[in-house]
Every structure is written in C-alpha cells, then in structure tokens.
Amino acid sequence: MSLIAVAGAWLMLAAIDLGTISAFILAMGAVSFLLIILLLLFIARVLGTLIRLLESSRPGKRISAERSGPHPLTNFSRNGVPSDPLNVKIIATPGQLATAFAAAGWYRADEIALITSI
Question: Closest by alpha carbon to 25, among 40, 7, 8, 13?
C-alpha cells in the first residue's frame, strides 16, 4: 500500500460521522483496543521478567566460574545452552537402582506433573 492510499484511508475514517456508526461496531473497536493494550502489557511483563532472570543469574555464573577454575561446573551445548557436564548411562533394574540410591541416602524424586514443574 502506498503512503497516499494510507493517508486517503485515514482521511475517509476521519470524515465518518460517529453518529452513523452502530454501537456494536464501536463496542468491538473498544474491545479490540483493550485487547491490544492487554497484550502489549503482557508482553512487557514477560520481557521484564526475562531480563530480571538473566540479570540475577550473572553473579551466580561469575561465582561458579571463579570457584571451578579450569574445570567448569556447567557445560554448554553447540547451541550455547547450559547442559550437564557429563551424561552417564546406568544399566540396572529399577529395584537395583532403588536399593543403591536408598543405601546412599537419596530419595526418589517427585513424578513430573504441572505442580512439580512450576
């Protein structure tokens, strides 16, 4: 759309008498406007939270790097995502694993569910 066409459309909208527009259309416009404002507020809130989370993790990363020296506590994948430094595969039956972990004083983790993931 050219700039002239957009300006013409705005002039046509400005020339419309609000008394001729139905109340339903005005209400739908107001609802749409409010939804857009709410969406923008939601996006701003999410981005603000993300920024605070990133800023709060910087000191921990710095301390981890200082204490671990040449042996980092966190590994990074090819995509730059923090991951486990080492993955180990244990070959055992569930009973053997439960017995070994119980002997070491470990407890079984909660099952993954919505409430445990929050």
Answer: 13
